[in-house]
Amino acid sequence: MAETALAGVKVLEYCQMISGPYCGKLLADLGAEVIKVEEPPAGDAARRRGPFPNDVSHPEKSGLFLYLNTNKLGITIDLGTASGRQIFQRLAEQTDVLLEDRPPGEMARLGLDYASLSAINPRLIVASITPFGQTGPYRDYKSYHLNLYHASGHSSFFYVAPRDRRKGPPVMAGGQVGDYDGGLAAAVATLAALFARLTSGQGQYIDISKFEALLALERVVVARFANTPDPPPWPGMVGGLMPCRDGYVVVTAVQNHQWQALMELMGNPAWAQDEKCHDEFTRSQHRDEIQPLLEEWMAQHTKEELYHKGQSLGVPIGPVNTAAEITHWPQARQRGFFAQLDHSQAGRLEYPTAAYSMPETPWRAERAAPLLGEHNEQIYCGRLGYSREQLTRMTAAGTI
Amino acid sequence: MTTGPLEGVRILDFTWAWAGPHATLLLAFLGAEVIKVESRHRLDHTRLRSLVAGPTMTDPDHSVIFNDLNVGKLSLTLNLSQPKAVEIAKRIARISDVVTQNMRPGVMERLGLGYDDLKAVKPDIIMLSSSAVGATGPERTYTGYAPTFAAMSGLAYITGYPDGPPMPLSGAVDLRVGTTSAFAILAALYYRARTGKGQHIDLSSTEAVSTLIGHTFMDYTMNGRVQTRAGNRDHMMAPHNCYPCLGEDKWVTIAVACEEEWDALRQVVGDGRLEDGRFADAPSRWQNQEALDQLIGEWTASHSQEEVTEALQKAGVAAMPLLDGPALVQDAHLRERGVLEPLQHPTIGERLTVSPPWKLSRTPAQIRRPGPLLGEHNQYVLGELLGMSGDEIERLVAEEVVY
Q1: Which helix (H) or strand (E) covers residue B189, if one does?
Q2: Given B301, B327, B353, which residue is the final one in a domain?
């Protein structure tokens, strides 16, 4: 069996929905042992979000939960009980990383914050993943993806040319991508802390603000506003998103050699000789005249045709693809981007894996997402030394 | 001065544009020494032009975009079309831990700087190759940028108004790819520290974006269904939208996930307009969200963004103003957390720059220097690290090897 990059790293994840669980998944998929702690009786809210097979809600069949919790072990603890908190503390003693996403201050009230836990396990790394971080005037604010996405400036930075803009509110990105961003930033910081610990032997505390994780992805544009209070309006790129015969394509032919390749794809039309087409700035200034000429031509061709012919000539062009098209895309198939995993309730399903191929330490598909409390016996009896009888009692009492 | 977690890690960086440089930017924030290899022969185009920045610049040291994506790095100019420059690059690889590059697959191999070449001089080297669709597979030579990654990953298709076109988003897509690369490099560094083994990471930018909307693929695999554009709406939550406020183009977002939040919202609105059988429970609110949005929008329209946000947050309802660039720069929360930091640059003056998206208690991120001037660190890399004499360096400059 191949080795894993994070073999031996133990992670305790006390998180719900997307950001924290995505961080845990990134670590679990590369070999860390991630124990996911869920509150009984309902567990992670992602279990109730779907998508569900045939739209029938079922806590073990949520596509969101299944995708975000691959390769993890699942246990239940009620941290509202003293014995539950004690169990959690015992687990934290044996853990390298604790991921938590409770509102600021809550872990301290439970006696399970970094200060308390690092006193008993100085090597512990704790990452708190919250909407606005642990300090500042918004720290207690509640925020979902919609709120964070629009607050962090992303929607106002959409590069839609003035001609194509419409009245009304800006729109958020689909797929709750901004929640994944918070988890990805947390995963980078957590690995950095693990790396630092190899030499220092000491853990540390990581404060992740999802708001700032999103904002940092627009660092270039934010800095532009910060330093140039009234920057000139952006005229829009010539090309970009364009309708074609069976959908849409995106063309980014900004540099001159790319523009030349695009003209070659279009059979070198006579209008391309005009001074207006001289460089990206003259083209951009005359976007309203040039863009319709491109669109008219694109409309006569299919995505597939434009993509392969354009790319063979050196045009950076791509089709706007659906999940179905990507699932059947030969490039992704050949790279093994999708993997099938068996799950006792949801069955055998195909999952996206990871964008990085790492030959020494490949992405692994060891197990599908855990059932609620699936590994209680393994962890409580096998790891913490409770007897079967105690386990039965704790279950009956609602501790786990 | 505290040391970053990656203190002592050296990265030889051949990346350009946005995605690759963002990966090494994050690693520089973490304390790695990043040596960016550039050349007048083939300038990183963010040094010269960008539609976002405005007109073409003639001086490669004046680009604010380049600065923002290359804070904390060193710059070495090497003209890799010359064999001597390739030899120098290999000598630096020998004393480096990581090599990063985002040229079209095959180019580094043709230059003699492929993974096998570098492994021969540094057996435990970690190399990251980032490309549009990966370095294997039938389309490996295809190229792309942030908007094509968004298009081909599935993200553009599900972003937009329900009755409008897809949206290919913006440069943030590149930065997502870069963050994914940084994660993979850190995992490889951790593995190498324990086993002594390096490896070659092949990253597909398009796949990186797909993984960040991974659950949307599950609907297809489970139900054969393709998710489409839903604007600001959610498939379960309602209300869940942007609402107009006092002022021109001012918006507030409000999202309600449970009965508790709904009750709080009704109480803050206070005037009974939401007391309606159509909104009795979550499924009916979702069914009647057009009407619900209309009523909430009429309420928000007579208040400022701040009034709505403060009143709702106080009652436990998720509400935030839509903030644009100028508003973010003034934002009290970001100020208190030191998110925008002033940074002195020798040719463009003092700039505010966005600090890293994490706060590490023991090894805090640091911005040690602005984006480098072109070739600013030639002397350090060639003289101090490689031990070349002044004469030798001058000869290489004259031969346009160091160029």
Answers
A1: helix B172-195
A2: B327
Instruction: Report d(CA A182, CA A130) in Å as an integer.
Output: 9
State how many domains chain B has: 2
| pTM score of the predicted model | 0.98
Q: Which two tokens stand for residue A261?
A: 């390749």
Q: Distance between CA atoms of B176 and A236, rounded to whole angstroms?
A: 22
- How far is the C-alpha of A163 from the C-alpha of B123, rounded, in Å? 54
Range of the domain at B271: 240-327
The one catalytic residue among B68, B174, B249, B263: B174
Handedness of CA A128, A129, A135, A139 (dihedral sign): negative
Which stretches of chain A drop beneath a pLDDT of 70? 1, 157-165, 229-235
Please report whether residue B375 resides in a domain. Answer: yes
End-of-domain residue from the set B327, B362, B379: B327
Q: Is the dihedral of CA B67, B114, B140, A322 positive or negative?
A: negative
CB A267 within 8 A of CB A260: no
Q: Which residue has the tokens 């950001």?
A: A19
B174 is catalytic: yes
Q: Would B393 be classed as within a structural domain?
A: yes
CB A139 within 8 A of CB A133: yes
Q: Do B16 and B155 belong together in one domain?
A: yes
Q: Which domains does chain A have, with CATH numbers?
A: 10-218+359-397 (3.40.50.10540), 240-324 (3.30.1540.10)
Q: Are B237 and A232 a contacting pair at CB < 8 A?
A: no
* B242 and chain A in contact, CB less than 8 A: yes
Distance, CA of B27 to CA of B365 (rounded, Å): 10
Phi then psi dihedrals of residue B27, to 5 deg = -70, -35
Give residue B48's pLDDT.
Answer: 82
Closest CA to B221 of A365, A53, A48, A322: A53
Residue of A58, A118, A146 to mutate when probing chain B, most B C-beta within 10 A: A146
pLDDT at B1: 47
> pLDDT tens for residues B13-26?
999 999 999 999 99
CB contact under 8 A, A360 and B49: no
